[in-house]
Specification:
The protein has 7 helices and 8 strands, in the order H-H-H-E-H-H-E-E-H-E-E-E-H-E-E. With 255 residues, the chain is of the alpha+beta class. The strands form 2 sheets. The protein has a 6-stranded mixed sheet with strand order 2-3-1-6-7-8, sandwiched between helices. A two-stranded antiparallel ribbon has the order 4-5. A hairpin with a 2-residue loop joins strand 7 and strand 8. Helix 1 packs antiparallel against helix 2 and helix 4 packs across helix 5.
Length: 255
């Protein structure tokens, strides 16, 4: 039986209960009520009964609202966990893939530029080997927070995997993306990670690719940025490379 039908039948039962009780009382005592007194008795009984029922329904609704609120909060938390990297707090690879596909579709449709910057920490394994994985985790959190603080409205910074981050810069051509990457590179070089009583200096290499006209798909854009990042690593690290062309002003001596 549907819940609405149950409530309807319960309401009918409650509505008949008070007059039926008075009628039984009158027949049993052979006393007839004054119409005014009878109406007053019905009104009082109805008020009491429906007041109790209303309180019960209100308590039930409060429980349902609380549970719905808890479910909504849990759903939001699960959605956040599914799109956020647990260690760094920035977007994860799944969010990155979805966003890049959307931005590439926008680029192809409206012929507006979109840049991708791949960021890889230099000699990150040495940090883990010398200071332990907790130190490495702190470096990743620090770097992610720093890079994320440089994004503009509409940009995305995500953890691509391991010690590699990625930044999607919509409506941004390669020269502007390279300037953004150089600013981030400089900050990373000058703002080491604080760890216990000291600091952990860490640098990063940057590969920049843009679309259009260089690429026509998300896969091609990633490949172009990866190729530039590889060139940055090969050139001595701690540099920004744009589509395979080394930026001389960004070259630093590898330590």
């Amino acid at each position: 039986m549907r819940l609405a039908t149950r409530y309807a039948l319960f309401g009918v039962l409650v509505g008949l209960l008070a007059p039926a009780g008075l009628l039984v009382y009158a027949l049993a005592t052979r006393r007839w009520f004054d119409p005014v007194a009878f109406s007053a008795a019905l009104a009082a009984g109805g008020a009491i009964v429906f007041g109790v029922i209303g309180s019960m329904i209100g308590c039930r609704d409060e429980i349902l609202l609380r549970r719905n609120s808890e479910l909504a909060a849990l759903s939001g938390k699960l959605a956040e966990l599914s799109t956020t990297d647990a260690l760094t707090g920035i977007d994860n690879r799944r969010s990155f893939d979805d966003r890049l596909a959307m931005e590439m579709a926008r680029t192809q449709r409206y012929d507006v530029p979109c840049a991708l910057v791949m960021i890889d920490l230099d000699r990150f394994k040495a940090v883990n080997d010398l200071h332990g994985h907790p130190a490495g985790d702190e470096v990743l959190r620090h770097v992610a927070a720093l890079v994320d603080s440089e994004k503009r409205s509409g940009d995305m910074v995500a953890r691509y995997g391991g010690e590699e981050l990625a930044a999607i810069l919509p409506h941004t051509a390669a020269p502007d993306a390279a300037a953004w990457a150089e600013r981030v590179r400089t900050r990373l070089e000058n703002e080491p990670t604080r760890w216990r009583d000291g600091v952990l200096p860490v640098t990063a290499s940057f590969g920049v690719a843009s679309a259009p006209p260089q690429v026509a798909s998300a896969a091609a854009l990633i490949e172009g940025a990866d190729r530039a990042l590889y060139a940055a690593k090969q050139s001595g690290r701690n540099v920004v490379v744009v589509n395979g062309a080394l930026r001389p002003d960004a070259v630093r001596n590898a330590s």
